[in-house]
Amino acid sequence: MRQTGNCAIFGVDPQNCFGHPKGGLYVPGGEKIIKPGNKLIAFGKKYGFIMMFSADWHLPNSTHFKPVGPWPPHGIAGTWDAEFLSGLGIPSDPYSNAPFVFFKGTGENENGYDPFEGHGIGGSDSPENMLDEYKIKVLIFWGLTTDWGVKTGVFTACRLAPKYGWKVYVAIDACRAVNANPGDEQKAIDEMRAAGAIITTTEEIINGRA
Question: Which contiguous run of DSSP H or E holds residue 192?
Fold first, then answer.
């Protein structure tokens, strides 16, 4: 993996809403993705990999939120809650010069679980088109949350893999789960593996053992 330039590292929703104790939908231990996430970011920068990020970017009246939807308000566009975790080696503001940020859940009736549903600033481009344009063959996922955003993105990547020739990895130590129901995290891991993803760790990726 280290020798190829056609690799993308996809950070799914590493935002305050999920990874900060004061976030709108804080995931216990969510802040612990920062250290392995930074290792992946540094690794990607060192070898010239494509760096991608998705971000929940909801409207305040989104049906994704209670009482209509299942979740408390979180990731509302333009708020602190929607910013990237400040300890990561990327700008905290998704509208700044962080590379390849895709916004999702932007419509009133959009849940925005799947990072592949995201779009660039002003509605431009999509993750699928960008990965195709750069002839990506290796795709590494990490971020929040294991049992929602990461899992859904991995499912889409595995479904598209035969078309584009992608090999899909998940750096599981750089992920955390909501675990709304006991066992959701392990279930998500098992489902991603069954879909064709390679479940691995940051250290295995960095040291060429993945």
Answer: helix 184-195
Q: Is the dihedral of CA 9, 12, 13, 14 positive or negative?
A: negative
| Contact between 127 and 10 (Cβ < 8 Å) | yes
Residue 53 maps to a domain: yes
pTM of the model: 0.95
pLDDT digits (tens, 9 = 90+) for 65-85: 999 999 999 999 999 999 999
Q: How far apart are CA 77 and CA 137, in angstroms?
A: 32
Number of structural domains the chain divides into:
1
Task: Print the domain residue range for 36.
Answer: 7-206
CATH number, position 71: 3.40.50.850
Contacts of 163 (CB under 8 A, 6+ apart): none
